């Protein structure tokens, strides 16, 4: 009696999932392979015999993984983002900054242009020209500060409306994103300029 149970139980242990499913459905296309044949088919050597090919495969696998992480970061997929970029409030702050056209975005190109003009063309400008360039640079700086202040206030108002609270650091995060040129921002902008956020 016990021998009969054991004999009936052995084939079930040797069957794969597909074959078990086929048997339950009343169909079997081929005899069940033996356990040792299945184990042998799944075995892989710990150290590959061809070390050069193994290194090439490992290099390709790492490159594909890094490319997937890079694409995930660029598109804003939560699992690939850095800790500073994660969370619904930070996502909203990014979209808020990307939907706006701010003077702050063009601050660094304008400052670089002022430096080139004031240093490279200083003999041609003279004292009055250099003074005018310096005051103009400070004027741009003041405009950027005012623009960032209004961006800060608008972002805070929208965050309080949408989330009822503001997480620490989110206002700085969203406001300073407007200082970066659009094509240099990471994660990449997911909304177009002028988009109305909900």
From TrEMBL:
Residues 1-70 are annotated as: Disordered. Keywords: Membrane, Transmembrane, Transmembrane helix. The chain crosses the membrane at residues 106-125, 131-152. Pfam families: DUF3043. The keyword Transmembrane applies. Residues 52-70 have a biased composition (Basic and acidic residues). This is DUF3043 domain-containing protein. InterPro entries: DUF3043.
């Amino acid at each position: 009696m016990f021998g009969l149970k054991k004999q009936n139980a052995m084939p079930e242990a040797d069957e794969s999932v597909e074959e078990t499913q086929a048997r339950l459905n009343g169909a079997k296309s081929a005899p069940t392979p033996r356990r040792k044949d299945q184990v042998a088919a799944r075995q892989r050597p710990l150290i590959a015999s061809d070390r050069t090919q193994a290194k090439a495969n490992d290099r390709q696998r790492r490159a594909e993984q890094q490319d997937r992480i890079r694409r995930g970061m660029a598109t804003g997929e939560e699992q690939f983002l850095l800790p500073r970029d994660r969370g619904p409030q930070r996502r909203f702050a990014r979209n808020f900054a990307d939907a706006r056209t701010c003077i702050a975005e063009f601050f660094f190109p304008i400052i670089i242009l002022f430096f080139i003009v004031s240093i490279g063309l200083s003999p041609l400008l003279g004292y009055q020209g250099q003074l005018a360039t310096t005051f103009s640079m400070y004027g741009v700086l003041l405009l950027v500060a005012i623009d960032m202040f209004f961006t800060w206030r608008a972002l805070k108002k929208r965050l309080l409306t949408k989330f009822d609270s503001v997480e620490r650091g989110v206002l700085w995060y969203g406001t300073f994103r407007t200082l970066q040129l659009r094509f240099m921002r990471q994660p990449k902008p997911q909304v177009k300029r002028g988009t109305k956020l909900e």
